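Retry 2 of 3 after timeout on previous attempt. Resubmitting structure tokens to design endpoint.
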């Protein structure tokens, strides 16, 4: 159950990255990129890739 909730949260967060406004500052953009990379790494580990 927890894994499914984590996956759903990751999917929702990754979808939100597409809607990031272009006017956000570089620090925020870097922080979001780090978060995205962390979520992608976790997804690859769960998928066994």
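Retry 2 succeeded. Sequence:
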């Amino acid at each position: 159950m927890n894994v499914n909730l984590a996956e759903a949260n990751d999917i929702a967060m990754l979808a939100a990255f597409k809607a990031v406004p272009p006017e956000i500052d570089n620090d925020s953009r870097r922080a979001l990129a780090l978060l995205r990379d962390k979520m992608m790494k976790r997804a690859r580990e769960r998928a066994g890739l």
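Attempt log closed. The chain has a mean pLDDT of 78.
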